[in-house]
Every structure is written in C-alpha cells, then in structure tokens.
C-alpha cells in the first residue's frame, strides 16, 4: 500500500472517530446507546445488561456485561430510561465503580410507564459505569417503550494535538 493511500485511510478513520476542535486539535467521539434488557426480572444489585446496541463510538460499552469502560478521561453524561411492568416496581440507578450516581423508582399502574434519569460525572480512563437494580425490579421493553442506557463524552480532560509529518 502506498503512503498516499495509507494517509487517506488514516484521515478517514480520524474524521469518523474524532471531533476536530481547532487547528491541529481533536477529541474522540465517545458515545453509546443500548436498549433491550437481557433479563427483565432483576434481583437487588443485578446489572442491567442491554443487548441491542444502537451506537457505540469508542467501543466503551460492552453488551455482554452491560458495563461502559471509559476509554478517554473527561466529563460524561449518562441517561437511563427504565420502563416497568404493570403492577410492578422498578428500583434502578446509574453506578460508577460501585458508587450510586443517581437512582429512581417507578410503579406500573394499568400501563407500562417509563421514567428517566441522568448523571454528569468526571471519569478517568478505565473507570466503569453501568445501570443496576437497587431492589427487586421488573423491567418492560417493547417497540414503543425502551429500557435504555446512553452515555456521551461532553468534554475531554485533554485535547489530542495532531502532528504534521
């Protein structure tokens, strides 16, 4: 492969996975959304594993474990929407390395209501965020009501400077 082709491929990859900030500076596109819980009947402390990934730029979310591992330090926002079965409760929250960031409770009356929450948190590379049940919980998920978790890097701790060759 010639140098020109290699340079073009690198430029395309950078454009698809990094945001340009200014002359010579970039930051990574880190964002994910996943929905569709593997298990809808949860025990206290159980991680909510969401198997259907809509987007996973940065590959931080693992749909096998339900855990986001921070690939780049910075300020993140996470949102969790939980839908609950009729006549059941859902006690869930967003967790950072076993510390609860935000929690909520929903009760399903004659419908399948959904409730959402969000958390802003500074993360260092390698720290983990996930959603979990804080009590026995019963989630609902269908075409109109999605139980989902999303996260996005709002501001990196450091910008990456492009080196000219």
From TrEMBL:
Its main location: secreted. Residues 25-160 form the C1q domain. It is found in: Secreted. Pfam families: C1q. Keywords: Secreted, Signal. It comes from the Eukaryota. InterPro entries: C1q_dom, Collagen/C1q_domain, Tumour_necrosis_fac-like_dom. It comes from Mya arenaria. This is C1q domain-containing protein. Residues 1-23 form the signal peptide. The lineage of its organism: Eukaryota, Metazoa, Spiralia, Lophotrochozoa, Mollusca. SUPFAM superfamilies: TNF-like. Coiled coil: none annotated.
């Amino acid at each position: 492969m010639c140098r020109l082709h290699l340079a073009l491929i690198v430029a395309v990859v950078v454009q698809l996975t990094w945001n340009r900030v200014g002359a010579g500076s970039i930051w990574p596109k880190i964002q994910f959304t996943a929905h569709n819980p593997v298990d809808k009947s949860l025990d206290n402390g159980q991680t909510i594993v969401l198997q259907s990934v809509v987007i996973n730029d940065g590959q931080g979310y693992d749909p096998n474990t339900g855990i986001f591992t921070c690939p780049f330090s910075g300020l993140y926002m996470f949102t969790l929407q939980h839908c609950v079965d009729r006549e059941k409760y859902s006690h869930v929250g967003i967790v950072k390395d076993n510390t609860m960031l935000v929690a909520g409770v929903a009760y399903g009356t004659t419908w399948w209501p959904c409730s959402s929450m969000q958390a802003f948190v500074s993360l260092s590379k390698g720290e983990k965020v996930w959603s979990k049940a804080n009590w026995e919980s019963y989630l609902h998920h269908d075409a109109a009501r999605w139980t989902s978790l999303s996260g996005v890097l709002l501001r990196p701790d450091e910008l990456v400077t492009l080196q000219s060759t």
